[in-house]
Design goal:
The complex is a heterodimer. Chain A is mainly α. Chain A is built from 11 helices and 6 strands. By secondary structure, chain B is α/β, with parallel strands linked by helices. The chains are: A mainly alpha, B alpha/beta.
């Protein structure tokens, strides 16, 4: 690594990073606060009325999804938040090769005694560190939201069964409202697996954007291709979820491997499930990929894309500006 | 003298275009080497192949016995390069650009870069994004001359510069030669090339069509005169090397390939008026190959 290249890359990344970091941190905090404003118990009746088809839109139980942990976990599924991370990954990833070539600065850079490997990997590593920091900041925003907000719950008066640690709710009485810290209902540690999933998706997007960049000489075209890939993947995923006829399409969208609420639910049930490549049912039948499975697909595909990008850049001609 | 730069049948073919065709050149250590040719002749392609930016289709290019493509990092330690269209980081100020490039190259000195900037009267506090083309060119020259390397490659170094700065840059090229550096530069300004180069090559449509030693060219003259009587035949010793062209019966035109003194003796005995003796000059040589395409500036 070359110190001058690292400084240059940090300078170029800093403004975008700060802007996105502030947005992501504030949104995560705000989104958790919004959850505290609505009483979860009211969702129960709505869920019972929802048609079964709607369950296709999530891989977790609706009942868990309306719990406080489920609803706060959905923060990581918010299009705005995902888009912030994707914007950072795509904008910085596309800049690695075609950005420098488009601006005409690649020739001056490569005429110095630095290898193409250094010129390539320095911004890639800085961008990946940026994605990691964004995930940490999102977690901090969510943790702060959980720690600083209170929730109101409707609770029926209950009578305690003598000699047994058991209470019987008296549902024929009028429920009373109680206020308690959200931290009593939500443990922020469970968000970590979801954020790990988000980081690996960011890693994959950086890799894909860099790969496109290494083949191209125009930044605008690289950006267009990378954004198009993101949008098409999103649409394919929605289509696959909406119609059972198109369900096979889910295998061609990278969003299929982004399941933060699912990995958070599994973490709540069994923390060690983070290390499962595949989820098996109670009878040993294959249900879905495990958290590690999702992340490893992102990581594997990302590594392949980066390898292709690095090889291409190592061998390609550098066009005149 | 040993060759610092050597290419052998160097060729670069793009789909449908041969940018450089079997180019073989040698640049001796300490020489100032000029590349001439109109746009699209292959000058920049040759320089970019030397820098390892392009992979040769065939042939080889070596600098200091290192392969320009395979050993490019080692090659870049031996040289500095000024691109034809110098683009620098727009989000940096001039001083930051110099700091960046002097940090990235161990042999470069910030002090040296600053002294070049002072010499070129460049305002380093300005953002690169707000600099004019000429100012960016000056900044790139500061980057170039901040390191003392055996080889300096300049692609049209004086384009976009005013005449005063042009002169200063040519002085710097001369100083680099004095220090023992080898300089390769391409230019459209014949007078600059004539003043500074030891050897010049002329390219046309990707082919090297002529190599000219400037020392030899400086000894060549053309002589024009009006004939007022019967001229005597050339002595045998001169006949083989001098060609006489008579335009009708009134004008004599001849070119001397080298030493002028033998012909002067013969001329003195001839019945001639209005005798004009001129150095042949690079323009005439260039026009032999590019008389139809003239983008060359003669200052």
């Amino acid at each position: 690594m070359n110190i001058a290249l690292i400084k240059k890359s940090l300078t170029e990344t800093s403004i975008l990073f700060v802007a996105i970091a502030i947005g992501a941190f504030a949104f995560a905090w705000f989104r958790v606060w919004v959850v505290s404003e609505l009483d979860t118990t009211r969702f129960q009746q709505i869920i019972e009325l929802l048609p079964d088809d709607w369950r296709n839109f999530t891989t977790v139980d609706f009942e868990w999804l309306v719990s406080y942990l489920g609803r706060t976990a959905l923060t990581l599924d918010e299009p705005f938040l995902i888009m912030l991370v994707a914007i950072f990954a795509i904008v910085r990833g596309t800049d690695v090769v075609s950005g420098e070539i488009s601006r005409g600065t690649m020739e001056m850079l490569l005429s110095q005694p630095v290898s193409r490997r250094q010129v390539f990997w320095t911004p890639v590593v800085i961008t990946l560190i940026g994605v990691l920091l964004l995930c940490v900041l999102i977690w901090l925003g969510m943790w702060l939201g959980v720690s600083t907000t209170s929730i109101k719950e409707s609770v029926y008066p209950a009578i305690r069964v003598p000699l047994m640690d058991y209470q019987i709710p008296l549902s024929f009485l009028k429920p009373k409202s109680v206020t308690l810290p959200m931290a009593e209902r939500v443990d922020s540690i469970y968000f970590i697996p979801g954020l790990v999933n988000l980081f690996f998706m960011g890693f994959f997007l950086v890799a894909v954007a860099t790969m496109v960049s290494s083949f191209d000489r125009f930044r605008w075209r690289t950006l267009g291709i990378a954004i198009g890939f993101y949008m098409v993947s999103a649409m394919i995923k929605i289509l696959a979820m909406a119609s059972s006829f198109f369900s096979w399409l889910s295998y061609v969208s990278f969003f299929t491997c982004y399941e933060p609420e699912s990995v958070i639910q599994q973490a709540e049930l069994n923390w060690n499930s983070q290390w499962h490549l595949i989820r098996y049912g109670t009878e040993g039948d294959w249900i879905d990929l495990g958290p590690l499975g999702y992340n490893m697909i992102f990581f594997g595909l990302g590594c392949i894309a980066l390898l292709i990008a690095a090889t291409k850049f190592q061998r390609r001609d550098i066009p005149a500006p | 003298m040993t060759a610092l730069v050597a290419t052998d049948s160097l060729t670069k073919i793009y789909p449908g275009v041969t940018a450089l065709d079997r180019c073989t050149v040698q640049v001796c250590t300490g020489d100032v080497f000029g590349l001439l040719g109109p746009n699209g002749a292959g000058k920049t392609t040759l320089l970019r192949l030397l820098l390892g930016f392009l992979r040769p289709t065939s042939g080889t290019a070596q600098i200091a016995n290192l392969d320009c493509y395979k050993d490019r990092v080692a090659v870049h330690r031996e040289l500095v390069y000024l691109p034809g269209d110098a683009r620098l980081f727009r989000t940096m100020r001039g001083r930051q650009v110099l700091k960046f490039f002097t940090q990235i190259r161990a042999s470069a000195s910030m002090q040296q870069a600053l002294s070049v900037a002072e010499r070129l009267e460049l305002d380093l506090s300005r953002w690169v994004g707000f600099m004019s083309t000429g100012m960016r060119q000056k900044l790139a020259l500061c980057v170039c001359f901040s390191a003392l390397t055996p080889l300096i490659i300049l692609d049209e170094p004086t384009a976009n510069l005013d005449p005063n700065v042009r002169g200063e840059v040519m002085k710097m090229v001369g100083e680099a030669k004095q220090r023992g550096s080898t300089v390769i530069f391409s230019s459209h300004v014949l007078s600059e090339v004539e003043e500074t180069c030891d050897e010049v090559v002329i390219l046309r449509e990707g082919r090297l069509v002529h190599t000219q030693s400037m020392h030899q060219l400086n000894r060549q003259h053309r002589i024009r005169a009006k004939i007022r009587g019967q001229i005597t035949a050339l002595p045998d010793s001169l006949r083989e090397i001098i060609e006489i062209r008579e335009n009708g019966s009134e004008e004599l035109y001849l070119e001397t390939p080298g030493e002028l003194s033998p012909i002067l003796k013969w001329l003195a005995d001839q019945p001639l008026d209005d005798v004009m003796i001129q150095p042949i000059g690079l323009r005439a040589v260039y026009d032999r190959f590019h008389s139809d395409v003239s983008e060359i500036e003669e200052v």
